[in-house]
Amino acid sequence: MKRRHWMEFEDEGWFPSSLRDLLTDYLSFSFTKLPIYDPVVAHVQRLVESSENGKVVDLCSGGSGPWPRILRRLPADCPISLTLTDIYPNVERFERVRVEAGRRIDYRTEPIDARSVPADLSGARTLFAGFHHLRPRDARAVLADAANNRCPIGIFEFTDRSVVNVVATLVAPLLPLVSVPFIRPWSGKRILWGLVLPVVPLVVAWDFLASTMRSYRADEMLEMAPRDMEEEYSFEAGEIRSLFGLVKLTYLLGLPRAKDEKPGSCDRSDGAQPADPRRSGRYPVAS
Q1: How buried is 197 (Cβ within 10 angstroms: 0-12 exposed, 13-18 middle, 19+ buried)?
Q2: What is the DSSP secondary-structure string of 81-127?
Q3: Hey, what domains does the chain have and what are their CATH numbers?
Q4: What is the pLDDT of residues 180-229, one digit of tens each?
Q5: Taking the CB of residue 207, how many other CB atoms lie within 10 A of it?
Q6: pTM
Q7: What is the largest CA-CA distance in the chain?
Q8: Rounded CA gap, 253 and 257, in Å?
Q9: What is the CA radius of gyration of the chain?
Q10: Do residues 92 and 117 touch, judged by C-beta distance below 8 A?
C-alpha cells in the first residue's frame, strides 16, 4: 500500500484549538489507559540512559501521549527529566499530567518545531505517534537536527499502512464516544462535541484513516536517516507486536556512537526482527 499524505484535521492551523485539545485529550487518555506502547519501555530506557542527566524532550506531544504510563513503568533507578512540547501545545492537559506525575514532567507553552529544536532543550528526543504527521522532507529534518546536535532520538508509531487499520476506521468513532464519561476533568465542551454533537469521534475516525495512510514503514524510516553521520551516529529500526498482537509498533532509534565504537557495531537487545540487516550506519536518503 503506497504512502499517501492525506490531510489530518489535527495538523491544520485553522482547526479550532478547543476541538484540537479535546482530540489530544482523548489520545492521551487512550495511550495512558491501554498498554499500546508498553513493549517499547526498554527502548525508552536506553534513550534516557544515553542522554545528559536523564533529560528527555518529547516532540509532537499532543496532550502528553503515553508518557504518564511510561513513567510508571520505567525502573525506579532510571532518572528522567521530561519536557513536553508541541507545535500546538495542549497546555491545560500538560499541566494536569505534570501535577499527576508528581512534577516529574515539565512542559513548554510556546510552539516548538520538531525540525529545529531550541538549543536550551537538550537531551534525548522522542516522538510518539507524531512522525507520520511529517512529510519525508520534514521527517529527514527532524532526524538530521537530532544527529547534528548529537541528541539520542526515538520514534515510536502505532499505526501502519495495512488493510486491517483501514477497516478499523469503521469502529474508530465508537472509542471516543465510550471514553467521554471517563476522561477528567469533565467539561461541557467534551460532552457537547463528544456525545451530543459527535464531532470529535468523527474527526478521530478520519484522522486515524489519514494517519494509517501517512504511516512510514521501518525501512522507510531508515532511508530518511542522515547519510553523512556514519562515524558519529547509528540508527536501528524494527517492529514489535503490541496489545495482544493486534497492533504493530514501528520504531526508529538514533544513538550517538561512543568514541571507540565502529560503524555497524550497534547490537539489538529486544529480540525483535530488524527492519534491515544493516541496522546501523549510513543509509541512502530517498528522493
Answers
A1: exposed
A2: EEEE--SS--HHHHHHHHHHTTT-EEE-SS---TTS--TTS-SEEEE
A3: 28-161+214-256 (3.40.50.150)
A4: 989 988 899 999 999 999 999 999 999 999 999 999 999 999 999 998 88
A5: 22
A6: 0.89
A7: 61
A8: 12
A9: 18
A10: no
